[in-house]
Amino acid sequence: MKECENGHENPDGTRFCGTCGTDRWKSRSGGSELIQKLKTYLQQLYGMSGFLELPLGAGFLVQRGSTVTVISIGAVTFRGQQTPIVSIWAPVAKEVTRIDASSRELLESSAKMAFGGFGYDPGTKQVVFKTSLLAQTLDLEELHIAVEMIGCTADQYDEIIPQKVGGKKANEA
Fold first, then answer.
1. CA dist., res. 119 & res. 123, Å (int)
2. How many Å apart are CA 78 and CA 60, to the nearest integer?
3. Tens of pLDDT along 18-28?
4. Rounded to a whole number, what is the distance in angstroms from the first to the last CA of the chain?
5. What is the DSSP letter of 68?
6. Three-state SS at 34
7. What is the DSSP letter of 113?
């Protein structure tokens, strides 16, 4: 559930607030402050033109090789409390046609990774490489390492995985 910058709830997910009409939203997990923190860190790491801020506080994009890394915020519920997280992920393959014995190789590869792991979204038919970090303790170095590891690993595997599971590289039209 999101609320607008003026504190009104957005139960139906429309673009404009039904109470005040604004199109500026924040999540209940302290989204606007966290978005600003991420933006400041990304400016320090990549300069003003090294990343793209998505509209409506949806997150950021950073390009690494042929891969685009997505940085977004969300929340997990732990012991009844919502805890803000930063999700960092990159699409590796799209229009995947077969997840069967080949998915075992993905799982085995993920088990060997020091950071992040592969996942398959059957709704979008995408293979992604992803990690999540706790927002409360996130610092510049942790964000930098995560963005680079996710982007570089996805870039390394975006030609290998489509061959194994069918489909295309995520950046192909």
1. 12
2. 26
3. 676 665 555 44
4. 33
5. E
6. helix
7. -
Least confident of 6-10, 75-79, 81-85: 6-10
3-state secondary structure of 55: helix
Q: Is 49 exposed, middle or buried (0-12, 13-18, 19+ CB in 10 A)?
A: exposed
Encode pLDDT of 116-155 as tens digits: 999 888 888 898 999 999 999 999 999 999 999 999 999 9
Closest alpha carbon to 73 in 91, 53, 98, 47? 53
Tell me the two tokens of residue 90: 């990159």
Q: Which two tokens stand for residue 165?
A: 């599971």
CA distances from 21 to 3, 10, 58, 139 (A): 12, 11, 19, 34
The helix (run of H) or strand (run of E) holding residue 117 is strand 117-121
Position 69, amino acid: T
| pLDDT tens readout for residues 79-117 | 888 889 999 999 998 998 877 766 777 777 888 888 899
88: β partners = 71, 131
